[in-house]
Amino acid sequence: MAASIQSGGGFLQTKAGKAVAIGGAVVALGVCLFSVMGSLGGTGVASNRGNFVDAETGRAFAHTLVRGETMPVVSPYSGKRTGYLAEMCGWTRDGKVRSEPVPVLLNQAAGKPGPTFCPDCGRLVVANNPAAAEGMTPPPTESEYRAGGKGRAGEQPSARDR
Ligand SMILES: [Zn+2]
């Protein structure tokens, strides 16, 4: 009994060692991909599974990047390479934290000029968009942004209620 477990263990160890090596290579590639995409407006998520937005239809979809895959990815809606990594917006229109973050396609990711505003709450969304949290100052809405520039978002008293 003990002997068979031992020999089985030895075999598994070899297999596990290979799996770890392959897994490590995949993770390294994934990290590499995401750091490249970070400069294009990636979320910097730790996993290879990300939220994407189809630039043609504006619809969001989850997608797991596979080895060697390049951006943009094939969208299930258009069937073409129009899927871009989405930024997640976690705010509501009144500056509260949203229970379910919304995937937003950055203009820069889609090759459009100008800042990106969330279609859900109308607030500024940037590359590597910071996650929303209670007590944080919400990003400016489009009108706030245009009226006061980037620095005016800190004047919202409602953000300090809690
Ligand atoms: Zn939003």
Describe this structure in words.
The chain has 162 residues and is of the alpha+beta class. Helix content is 27%, strand content 19%. The strands form 3 sheets. The protein has a 3-stranded antiparallel β-sheet with strand order 2-1-3, with no helix packed on it. A hairpin with a 5-residue loop joins strand 4 and strand 5 (97-104). The longest helix has 37 residues, at 2-38. It is globular. The structure holds zinc ion. Zinc ion binds next to strand 4. Residues 89, 91, 102, 118, 120-121, 123 line the site of zinc ion (ZN).
Structure at a glance:
The chain contains two helices and seven strands; from the N terminus they run αβββββββα. It has 162 residues and is an alpha+beta fold.
Strand content: 15-25%
Could you tell me the mean pLDDT?
A: 79
- The stretches of 5 or more residues where confidence is low (pLDDT under 50) are 38-46, 151-162
Q: Distance between termini?
A: 62 Å
Rg over C-alpha atoms, rounded to the nearest angstrom: 21 Å
User: Strand arrangement, largest sheet?
Assistant: 2-1-3
User: Which word captures the global form?
Assistant: globular
